Amino acid sequence: MVTTIKKPQTLSLEEFLALPETQPSSEYANGIITQKVMPKGKHSIIQVELASAINQQTKPKKSAYALTELRCSFAGRSIVADIAVIRWQNLPLDSDGEISNQFSDPPDWIIEILSPDQSPLLVIEKILFCLAHGSEIGWLIDPATKSVMIFQNGSTQIYFAETDSPQPLPVLTDLENWQITASDIFAWLRV
């Protein structure tokens, strides 16, 4: 279930960002604050393992970085992606040359993992918003159906672990030589 908190007056993005962080994180769109659903076991395992697998491919080449629960505020919204993959050249740096705490662009690749009480439509809308503002690719991973929905170049494809296991999933352009299947992702659930 998603909890929506409406304020008597419309908050600006700046006012929202000045509020204390919540647990789980809250997101902002059109003056409305929506709190994310607390992740469960399957969500957490997929999130950790997938971010790690992506970073094993991207960090040595300094091509991209997969960050979990990263707040990105852009185009009047503030989202918290389950996994945000940012191309290395797009990583914001502070004045000390360290990674910035503020990300003001959409992730190059947004990955969302559906939780049992979460609305797929709201998550899909978030992915489509990111794509409309510069993300190259979006994934929606659904542990209940063992499927991965891919949003890219105006099209949508669905891959099921049971039937599409040998077919590699589309990934960020910089990772074309890396292959991962829906079956690979859901195999992490068997510990």
Write up this protein.
With 191 residues, the protein is α+β, with helices and mostly antiparallel strands. The chain contains 4 helices and 9 strands; from the N terminus they run βαββαβββαβββα. It starts with a strand and ends with a helix. 23% of the residues lie in helices and 29% in strands. A 6-stranded mixed β-sheet has the order 4-5-6-7-8-9, with helices on both faces. A 3-stranded antiparallel β-sheet has the order 1-3-2, with no helix packed on it.
Give a concise summary.
With 191 residues, the chain is of the alpha+beta class. The chain contains 4 helices and 9 strands.
Descriptive labels:
single chain, 191 residues, alpha+beta, 6-stranded mixed β-sheet, 3-stranded antiparallel β-sheet, 4 helices, 23% helix, 29% strand, globular
Major pleated sheet: 6 strands, mixed
Oligomer: single chain
Write down how many β-strands occur, each being a DSSP E stretch of 2 or more residues: 9
Q: Classify the secondary structure makeup into a structural class.
A: alpha+beta
Q: Which residues form runs of ≥5 with pLDDT under 50?
A: none
Helix run count: 4
Q: Distance between the terminal alpha carbons, to the nearest Å?
A: 27 Å
Q: Could you spell the SSE succession in H and E letters?
A: EHEEHEEEHEEEH
How is the secondary structure organized here?
Elements: E1 3-5, H1 13-18, E2 26-29, E3 32-35, H2 41-58, E4 64-74, E5 77-87, E6 109-113, H3 120-132, E7 137-142, E8 147-152, E9 155-160, H4 182-187
Parallel strand pairs: 6-7
Antiparallel strand pairs: 1-3, 2-3, 4-5, 5-6, 7-8, 8-9
